Amino acid sequence: MSAYKVSARKYRPQKFSDVSSQEFVTQTLKNAIISKKIAHSYLLSGPRGVGKTTIARIFAKALNCPNMKDGEPCNKCDSCLEITNGNHPDVFELDAASNRGIDDVRAIQDAAKFFPIKGKYKFFIVDEVHMLTQQAFNALLKILEEPPEYLIFILATTNPEKIPATIVSRCQRFPLVRIKIKEISENIKEIAKEEKIKIDDESLFLIAKLGDGALRDAQGIFDMAVSFCGDKIKYEELKNFLNIPDKEIYFNISKYISEGNAKEMLTYFSKLNEQGFDLQTFYSGIMST
Ligand SMILES: [Zn+2]
User: Could you tell me where the beta strands, DSSP code E, fall in 37-134?
Assistant: First the structure.
């Protein structure tokens, strides 16, 4: 029996061509791999859940893969599999949100001194790099100023403006975009098909929309929907489960607004509030009505 895996992990793209919405970034990185024009540091920025660390891992995989083809990793060799499983001896991942101090960067400095054990390159993937302390940034800058031939940094962040300019100027910058609703809904549709879950179009759209540009979030909502609705996801059930106000409610509110009927509207709001509607979802819903 295989252990349950959340969709975001189970269906994490393993090739550039499987990554949604980030064609500019994936194509540029593939070209760099094919033409062997590799920089020592890359900065991937963008909102949460859009594929920053996924792209970083695919890049590391392709560069260390002996069977690399057209800039894509083979995903079958030992090196590729070890990176997928997170145990490749030359690929290090650091979450700067919880490892933000000078000692953590010193550990990178020490590890960076040695040649890669297996592959041609040694990678440090630093997530949420903007969280590092000033001292840690200074230590990182020292490595970036004179990186050994085999060393590659892939820095990822949701807040690029918080990274010192001295660091940014040494990186190739790749801004990632929010994922379009249509692409999120296609991705969820594929997963549903794989998992043999029946899901109607309205539910797909709702889940994609709630993901708010983050594929990972939409996949999480899908997992919850499956655990609640079982192998048939119906809009009516899903809407109740997620406590999403009905279209009719938006219509009524819009009507009260256009009539300038503040009294009715307030009564209506307090009624909705009593029913426990999630206000955040409600506001984003009414903004798009
Ligand atoms: Zn491979």
Answer: 41-45, 91-95, 122-127
> Measuring CA to CA, which residue among 190, 191, 186 is closest to residue 223?
191
Interval between CA 219 and ligand 1 midpoint (Å): 27
CB environment 3-21: b (16+ within 10 A), e (fewer): eeeebbeebbbbbbeebbb
Question: What domains can be seen in the chain, in order of their start residue?
Answer: 7-175 (3.40.50.300), 181-287 (1.10.8.60)
In whole angstroms, what is the distance from residue 110 CA to residue 101 CA?
15
Taking the alpha carbons of 192, 49, 220, 97 in that order, is the dihedral positive or negative? Answer: positive
Task: Find the 107 Cα to ligand 1 centroid distance in Å.
Answer: 28
Ligand 1 midpoint to CA 87 (Å): 14
pLDDT at 289: 46
What residues pair up with 93 in beta bridges, in sequence order? Answer: 125
Distance of CA 286 from the midpoint of ligand 1 (Å): 48
pLDDT, averaged in runs of 10, over the chain (289 residues): 80 94 95 95 94 96 96 97 95 90 87 91 96 93 93 96 96 94 94 96 93 91 91 90 72 78 80 69 61
CA-atom Rg of the chain in angstroms = 23
Distance 69 CA to ligand 1 centre (A): 9
Cβ–Cβ < 8 Å for 16, 72: yes
- The identity of residue 277, as a single letter, is F
Cα 116 to averaged position of ligand 1 atoms, centre (Å)? 16
